[in-house]
Amino acid sequence: MPKLRGEAFWRETLRSAHYVVAPMVDQSELAWRLLSRRHGAQLCYTPMLHAQVFLRDANYRRENLYGEACPEDRPLIVQFCANDPEVFVQAALLAQDYCDAIDLNLGCPQMIAKRGHYGAFLQEEWDLLQRMILLANEKLSVPITCKIRVFPDIDKTVKYAQMLEKAGCQLLTVHGRTKEQKGPLAGVASWEHIQAVRKAVNIPVFANGNIQCLSDVEECIRKTGVHGVMSAEGNLHNPALFEGRNPLVWEMAEEYLEIVRKYPCPLSYVRAHLFKLWHHTLQVYQQLREELAKVKTLEGIVDVNRELKLRCQEEIANQKEGEKPKEGLPFFHWICQPYIRPGPKERCRENGDSGTEKGVRGKRALEEEEDVNSELLSKNKQKKKLRNPNKSFDPSLKPKYAKCDQCGNPKGTKCVFNMCRGCCKKRAFKEVADCPGHGLLFKTKYEKSLSWQHSQRGIQTPEVSQRGDAEVGETAVLKEAGDS
Q: What is the spatial distance between Cα 173 and Cα 205, in angstroms, rounded to a whole number?
């Protein structure tokens, strides 16, 4: 049976999905996808998977896709990041039997994507992208889809989308922000760009960006004409977003934790989800934030949720009539609701700066500019600086180490072989040699062992020797008797 394409693929395979949960690294795992599907999501993506790692590592495949079969988790699209056509297609071939389509990530704007040369940092390499999609479209038994970010220029964004369609992309998700719009600089997504793409291509289009509640979904579809709407952060703060409900935070947590019991995932994923679900409540109960950060077991997290529930219920019981939510929230903090990121100006005011961008130039500015000014250090480096005020992060001031002759790692300063400890240990063992610089004494220990064995052979008493001779004589007599 030939694979379905375009509108037919969206209508029949994806069941005309309008409500879509985005691919989120370490956050759109099976348990969360099942929770989202129970509350209105019609299509889910896996977390972004690294094609190269997926291809070479069987454990990575098992942990991220080949786990326990779950018929409820369909339709499902597997997303990969890649920058090599052959690697991408070989990884996709290993995944295609477990999903309904393969998605190429062309939207990740993070620094790790820049360093790995994938995601949104491929959006200028149209020839490479054409080859990747053409090969995938030819080799795979399932459709190929793409998730992109926009260019500042609408016309270029439209041409980009048309190029992907021509290469063989069967569905396009458009995040209405540029790759520079991230974190505190995210700003508002441009639905105008999305609308222009929708009008210019003949394949289904999903919109991504500015989705915090069901009314946003409906407005986006009305304004852009897209086939469906994808949510990431809105879904993390309220997994019932597509139902148009705002449930109690502990109820969503209880349901999620029950699913995790059946479909386990790393505890770090669970903790991250609860930090999102409980975001507003943890501003009130700071102690529970610390407990959630320290807890080491799923049962411990269940206990924290139970404590959070009791505190909220006590607060509800003591609530005064007519009391309104604090901090400008639309609902009380114990109700699932969106978290609106402060924009650059608001973040500047929070940090006590003027209306410049200085206030938001933290970790991201450091990543972009590799600046070592103390004001631009990441939070982790700032903590190290507090512990050791004399510590410098200037790469030009770091000591220069001589390299190991074997592997290129820093060599030991007193190594007799001019190697790092690992390479030195292998060579010293092979040659039965000593390296005092690394504390490796294979030759010395071997000589001591030989000396001890020699001394043991020489310490035989006359009595022992005589008894041994008698035993030998007795054995000879018995042998003679046996022969006769």
A: 6
